[in-house]
Queue: 2 jobs
Job 1
Amino acid sequence: MDLQSRPLDDVIDRLSGPTLDREKVSELVGIVSKSLGDTRLRPFPKGIPWPDGIIIHTVIEPEKLPNIFELLRTSGHIDSVRVFPRGIINPEIFVAEIEMS
Amino acid sequence: MPGSAARLMPDPGAAMAESFDRRQRILQIHPSLRCNLSCGHCYSESGPSAALELDREVAAAAIADAARLGYRTLAVSGGEPLLYRELPYLLAVARDAGMTTTMTTNGLLLRQPRAEAVLDRLDGVAISLDGPPEIHDRIRGREGAFASIEPATEMLKDRGLPFGFISTLTATNWHHLRWLVEFAVERGASLLQIHPLELIGRARIDMTDEEPPQAALGQAFLLVTLLRVKYAGQLTIGFDALLRDQILADPEAVYAGAEVPEGNAADLLGLLVVEADGAAVPISYGFSRRLAVGDLSRESLADSFGRWRNGAYLEYRALCRRVFAEIESRPEDQLVNWHERIVAASRRSELAVV
């Protein structure tokens, strides 16, 4: 596995496991919500695939997503997730150390 | 160029701009409720014994009208669309009208010879996938259902036809989101779209304990966000729930703006659904017939929409504003499946009238 992507994988593994405390999840969702700013996510009703997603193969402003880690880092309210970015340039070369309790 | 993404990609800039259009401009058609599976979460309660089918000329006229009214995409669902024999004809009508064509399928019949004529007229295919093999087969109600997916995706790749997966998120399978994403990337899919389970149709009976609670929805949303970072540029991951903050910041995205917009039908109503009995309803399958656009077996879509615009459309928007107010009053619900909410509210309004 790519060493640089390991911290991100750790968080994904942790979030894939048992359900976290609802308040903690709520706080994290709030942080992500802020980090997305004016990004418009497009939900679809049941049974309809997102045509742009399936055909044109675009992504929703991925450059905004690494900001989530910066917000997590600077949030004084999150005790269980600590993220230490070492220089976020783009998602592929994101480097961070994450400690979860 | 049947089956080619290039037809749709002359101007990537325009494509990106379109992706941020507030209205999706999609006509969804359920031509039949007949299906070779009886999935536990099926919102339309489709199955092998369902006989109802949309008349092909009614459907063709609706597609042609919809294109003139500003709808750009035809999305075919069901039932299993590949069991509807007139599908190649309908897709050809849509293509001739300049629409993009997509189909949502369970994938079991994709490699049958009769699927050829359908695939030739599609711009994208979405295959339903509910998790690793044992979970997928359990929800689909058929052992071995998963086994058809890998060869189907190989065939689609060989044809150069873009494809993705649509996955229903339940209270138990959300732990497998990472597996779903990795599987989608490995198979060469363009899209993985995650749709939270809705307790309607067969799910009301078979999956009552499976609706993801708000905490699970939140954790799944976080996972999707991180997986988007990890797989940026490789896979588009859609999540069919809106952040409450996004809704409050842009009421018109959920038809709750103060001003009624001007424009063509697709500007006023971004999602139009034609059900197997010919009813045209707003937004999503199962919307209250009281607010239906019309019965297309009796009147054309163009005529129906003209009348709806000047009557029930205002009532529809009033309903959207009531749902908006409900969302505003519940800050604890950070993630909202707005489509489910509005359909449920339309049903409640039906009861209130009775």
Job 2
Amino acid sequence: MNSEIELKQLKKEIEELKQQFATLKGQDKTQIPTYRYSQIRDDSVKKVI
Amino acid sequence: MIFDNWFNNDICLTEEIVNYLQQLIEQNGNLIEDYNEEDLKIYYITPLLNKINFLLKDKEIRGFYELPMTYKTSQFILNGTCDFVVSKGLVESKKPYFFIQEFKRHEEYGNPRPQLLAELITAVELNDWKFIKGAYITGGHWHFAILEKLERHKYQYFISQNFDSTKIEDLKAIYKNLLFVKNEILVMVDT
């Protein structure tokens, strides 16, 4: 039980660190949506257009 | 029709070119739908593009394969690599003129149309142009595209009818359309 909670907490902290790192690098995906050409779909193009 | 000027060109193909195209079909025709994207590129698309010859050293123009390109605005970022781009520059791409996007059979995001459109948006913005042309390929099928910038972050696009490159008349039309693009680029470079 304790290890489950610890794992959950650890994952949360990792996500927060990833977010902070992305912000520092200017790649904060929550601020600006980023689309890769190879993965973009029609609905994403329509959002951009 | 927006494609009229492009498709109703008066380019005449020599007998040598027609024979070359016919041979390309004979060699690959019944295999095209089974080719993976690398096979298709190496056996069918690249020979066609090489015959057009987008490598013009004196004009400093060439085709770039797998070209990385990014367009960043305050609202979105588009990035990734483009399959094929005819561009100003020999060592590095300086001004992209024309794009070709190929279908990726093994990828989840296989539809080449939105990929091409995203690339055209990037290019039209980087060049500060109103119009830009491209094409996308699914197996033996080619579609040409024109993107028009209407205003800031507003675009519209036009997709041509299908050209079946396994049929000689369609392949001749594809060849002429690509040659038209090459000639148009040459005029742009000279002015």
